[in-house]
Design brief:
- The protein is an alpha+beta fold.
- It has three domains: 40 residues; 353 residues, 3-Layer(aba) Sandwich (Alkaline Phosphatase, subunit A), CATH 3.40.720; 153 residues, Galactose-binding domain-like (Jelly Rolls, Sandwich).
- It has 13 helices and 24 strands.
- The chain has a ten-stranded mixed β-sheet with strand order 7-6-5-4-8-1-9-10-2-11, with helices on both faces. Strands 17, 19, 20, 21, 22 and 24 form a six-stranded antiparallel β-sheet that branches.
- A hairpin with a 2-residue loop joins strand 14 and strand 15.
- It binds calcium ion (CA) (2 copies).
Amino acid sequence: MSSKAAIVVGERRPTRYPEVMATVLRVLLLLMSLLVSVAAQTAATDKPNIVYVLADELGYYELSCLGHPHIQTPNIDRMAKEGMRFTQYLAGSAVCAPTRACLMTGKHSGHTSVRSNGGGTPLRADEQTVASLLKARGYATGGFGKWGCGGRGSTGVPERHGFDTFVGYYDQVHAHSYYPPYIIENSRELVLAGNTGGRTGKTYSHTVIVERAMAFIRANKDQPFFCYMPVTPPHGMFDIPADDPAWQLYKDKSWPEDARRYAAMVTMLDRQVGELFALLEELSLDDNTLVLFSGDNGGADYFKSKEHPRGFHGANVHPETGVEFRGKKGNLFEGGLRIPMIARWPGRIAPGTVTDHLCYFPDFLPTATELASAETPADVDGISMMPTLLGKEQKQHEFLYWEIGGQTAVRHLHWKAIRTRKNGEWQLYDLRSDVSETTDLAVSKQDVLQKLIAMAERAHEPVREGTFASRELHEKDRRAKWGKNQPRRNRRGSNFRLPKKGLLAHDGWQLVRASSESSSNGKVAKNAIDGNPKTIWHSRWQGGPEKHPHELVIDLGRSVEVHGLCYLARQDNGWNGTIKECEFSISEDPKAFPEAAKKATLKKTKRPQRVPCPPTKGRYIKLRILSEINGGPWASIADLGVMIK
Ligand SMILES: [Ca+2]
Ligand SMILES: [Ca+2]
């Protein structure tokens, strides 16, 4: 006021000088603020946020927008309406850990360091991930859920691979419980109040994990961020808080209890996806955030019965046509690889679009780096999906490749070659006309098959895994699944062992061969014949779930009259691999066995079980395991005895 008054009243020129300067300054300031705001907007559009919600186990047809008649997913359906749905975005692998490694590193499973699913295989220290590349570009990076690419004490922990923060589970076994005594935050233990492990407690881990993800987005709203949410529902023990609104929708259905819980967990996750979008809208980030939602591996055909041979919810069965994807989680038929996938980015991705672009998990990394104008390593196997997302011309894969536990699959255009065991016969399918992989064209289309086999051979390189400095904390985390609620052990904590009476002593026995073994965690085949109930043989499945060629051939050291076998199941808390149906035969020649001397169906018990057979003389025994007690793909033996009376 005083300076204005001075101008009006005074006539001396110098008094005008501050006025001019002030005006110039005001204009400059205005210009600068405009420039800053334009720059900020440029930076923002230059570096859009990325959110990836990865549901654990969700099958292809388990969304209502894909026609599921029972499971309700209104928010994910809305996401599909507002964005793009992929029909051929395939999992990186058919199981949890290897598939996550593909997603994070941009490599297929012929190149990744995490190719087994034991939970104990870490990324190497030198590997780059989506998070490390985006972090180098100035992104805030947060992970919330199940990591699976390296336990505590290993080279694979997320905070050493680009994540500013990672909250959840590093190990998959730990992740089976929604009520563990603690979860992990950057390798430290984050205590969950009132939890003692297992299936009950006061703090539902998934709630904490989602809250932390939301808080991360809120805290980083003014800078570009990558929010990775590999959440655990609907996997693990099928638990959901009794007061969750989603449980109310299903609790009174006439379905098996776990099928109701599973559906409720999907609907709960759907609600949280809705909350995520509400938050992005509230923070005005909606137009500047690419959100992806997908499953992690093909549907597991959970809750099978006579009426529902493909699982209660039919994850791999088209709800209207009944057309099925063959196989399921764990194998490389389409049922193990097909997952739902939706991408949403208002203003950039055309709403309500469906694409059949053939792509898979390794493609996420180059998509994210292109979006963020970050560096893309030259050795990734993925191809950016950005053109597809933006409706532009898309570069195609020459081939897609998978390998796991002796299985191999390669996809070239509409052709798919698959081998269900190491050195097994290749099969060839034309997915264009045979999405259910029913008609093997290996013989009639030799030329095509040879081309695909050459691609598969080119794609595989020997695995180079990361390492552990110490496994102590990793093992602790695995035990935290049960915490104080370890299921009751047999006979006040003591385990069973084979009886001595009537059984041949183990001295001099040798292993002739085994179909497979889990060597990475020491569960090798010779454990089945060492007389020690604490050491087990665990056979990784080889081939489709319908077939169990788990096989063990043992040399007794001398010819004896065999009266039967005695089977001791694994003595820990698990049942995976526990034998249901088996057969065995006896021979003097390890290369020639007669018809099975005995077929048997065993009981679900930890006690030793005797399987008598007509007395037969021979030095070698071949045991074939035909099915597992829970219908799973594994086989395990703590000890095997030979009855001599
Ligand atoms: Ca999974
Ligand atoms: Ca043993």
